[in-house]
Amino acid sequence: MSVIQKIRDKYAVVIIVLICLAIVSFLLQDVFFGSSRMFGQSTTVGKVNGEELDYREYMQRIENSQNRMRQQMQGASLDEETQQYIREEAWDQFLREHIMKAQYEELGIDVTPVEIADHINGKNPHPLVLQNFTNPETGQFDRGIFDRVRENARQDQTGEVSAQLVAFDNAIAEYQRNLKYITLVHQGLNYPKWLATQQAADNGQNATIGYVQVPYATIADSTIKVTDAELNKYIQDNKARFEVPESRKVEYVSFDVVPTASDTTAAMAELLKLKAEMDTTPDIAGFIKLNSDLAFYDGYASRNAIQVPAKDSIIDLPVGAIYGPYQDNNVVVFAKMLDRKTMPDTVKFRQIVMIAQPGADSAVKKRVDSLEAAIRGGADMAALAAQFSDDPSSKQTGGEYTLSPNSYFANELKEVKDFVFSGTNGQLKTIRLAVGGFAIVKITEQKNFGPALKIAYLAKPVDASTTTSSDALGLANDFASKNGDRKTFEKTVQEKGLNKRIADNIQPMDFVLPGLGSSREIVSWAYKADKGEVSPVFTLEDKFVVAVLTGVRNKGLAPLDEVRPQVEAEVKKTKKAEQIAAQFKSPANLEAAAAATNQPVLTAEGVNFSTPFVPSMGFEPRVVGAAFNKGWGTAKVSEPIHGNGGVFVIKVNSYAPAPAPGTDYAQQRQAYEQNLKQMVDQQLFQVLKKKSNVKDNRAEFFTQN
């Protein structure tokens, strides 16, 4: 202690000075390194033409999208596929904003505040206004709703409503800027009359041709030798076909955490303790919800709809009896028959739902009674549902639904579903809803009556114990420690007969790998490791994984090793074509070409310039083009043509007028330009994106799931 005290006494001032310097350097780091750096690490998650997107802004975009998605999914959790969609959507939105901003500035496109006001307050409200301020009762735009929102904004002390209105104005402005831009592009599209005339002339004749074909298959692949230099040259000459994104390839061994027999015994013992309570509990629904891994379904299912491993034994149980235990995948289950009845497997009905606010039941009930009386008197229930129902999902169908016993139907309307399956065809009834309000329901059709069952399932998972998990981890650690390079990794896999798997074409922002599920840590490691490096042990949900990096592909042209079979096939085909063309030499006629190659003279009819497909040949655009070569016409034999299926020599025997479609120029122009507009709408942004300088640094910030 005395030594420590001496250090404190002697160096206290020095330590304090050093701490102060560290704090000052932290506070001043933005001055020297810019606001986009945090603790020496850049927070720039991406750039478009030099403009930055901050990581925090990107994460906020993702969070906003997640919240919207959860609202749409009524609070359900988001799976990994949905999460990945949201991440990419947020990224694409950022790119779109910055890329299009540059386009708008270059063309001078803008939207003024006056325009925005007119789109909100004018005679023809903007589509976004109509979409967001529609009266749910009438289905029509209600300006009063928008006025109330603006009044709330003036009274809102937090400023949140005002911020939402500003964001809404910005959305209208962006919508209009994009509309102006697309309109300018569309106005630049044109189908001139001279082009229509030329195409009509090109397609106005059918050719009948004679030809000699030597298929490439007549020369064995083994006789054609190619070099790497020739293959690489082919790649360079056809760069557009071999451009690839950055990716990685890993091979891995998985040590799965599989429950043992003792784990199954432990789960069974726990389940047997609960079965005694299941036998006697008066509240089976509450018991199942509290204790079972299979949710309680408070409804009936037809015999055909029940799909469980022990189905034949379960469906014949008497009411109150229990079957089990039986195993269903990784759970052990007891099934209890709660009730059985005869029910239709399909019902159709109409409903008018009228929701009542607290304390307003009596007023709503009077309207409901009036409507029910009108229906009983012969009024059109579909028309009344479209006008008065508070159920927006069925207003367009006149309140009509078709259900089976296990169909999804809103929990708030459970009483309606119970009635339509237990009532009689044609029955009309007003039902008080548990959520407040009433539903006027008329059964219009019931069919296919049969037995329906209500069954409760008490299920417990068979989870691997800590000991089982530790054993699997021990095997993985032992494998990783003894196989530190690719060579020994491969050798051990073969010697021990381990199941090695491959994950190929791994992209920098992948979060899921096939066969592994969520595995972001493996992806992050793969982009930091060297080729041939063996990974540490990765802990996934139910397995431990050891991987080796076997492939590194940078953005650009695909390396020869990855595309060798495809390139070899093309280069060999070219060499075969040259050999075959040499056999033809310069034939004076088709008979000479046939004699030189020992192939027959064949005929093809109805060859038209508008289609590259010839029934007797297949897809042969070069042959079709040659058939209409004015330099050869009907007088000359063609030169050897390198086609898709072989080398051809052709001679046109005759031309005949082709049936004309009879479409006038105005119709042709409208159809042609409409197709062009659709193509532009689909591809324009991708073209602009490709021409922009986009840098994606997101992978550096996402190292874990």
Helicity, as a percent range: 40-55%
Indicate the CATH architecture of one domain: Roll
Mean pLDDT equals: 86
What percentage of amino acids are in beta strands?
A: 15-25%
Radius of gyration: 37 Å
CATH class of one domain, named: Alpha Beta
Which fold name corresponds to the CATH topology of one domain?
Chitinase A, domain 3
What shape does the CA trace take? Answer: extended
**Beginning-to-end CA distance, first to last residue:** 46 Å
* Tally of contiguous helical segments: 22
- The chain-level structural class is alpha+beta
Low-confidence stretches: 1-39
What is the number of E strands? 25
What composes the largest sheet?
6 strands, antiparallel
Family: Belongs to the PpiD chaperone family.
Protein name: Periplasmic chaperone PpiD
InterPro entries: PPIase_dom_sf, PPIase_PpiC, PpiD_chaperone, Trigger_fact/SurA_dom_sf
Keywords: Cell inner membrane, Cell membrane, Chaperone, Isomerase, Membrane, Rotamase, Transmembrane, Transmembrane helix
Could you walk me through the main structural features you see in this protein, from its secondary elements to its overall organization?
The protein is an alpha+beta fold. Among the domains are: 2-33, no CATH class; 205-243 and 561-657, no CATH class; 246-257 and 464-554, Roll (Chitinase A, domain 3), CATH 3.10.50; 264-461, Chitinase A, domain 3. Helices cover 46% and strands 22% of the residues. It contains 22 helices and 25 strands. The strands form eight sheets. Strands 8, 9, 10, 11, 12 and 13 form a six-stranded antiparallel sheet that branches. A four-stranded antiparallel sheet has the order 20-5-24-23. A four-stranded antiparallel sheet has the order 14-7-18-17, with helices on both faces. Strand 15 and strand 16 (517-518) form a beta hairpin. Helix 2 (55-72) packs across helix 3 and helix 6 (143-155) packs across helix 7. It is extended, with a radius of gyration of 37 Å. The two termini are 46 Å apart. The model is unreliable at 1-39 (pLDDT under 50). It is a single-pass type II membrane protein. Keywords: Cell inner membrane, Cell membrane, Chaperone, Isomerase, Membrane, Rotamase, Transmembrane, Transmembrane helix. It comes from Chitinophaga alhagiae. The chain crosses the membrane at residues 12-33. Pfam families: Rotamase_3, SurA_N_2.
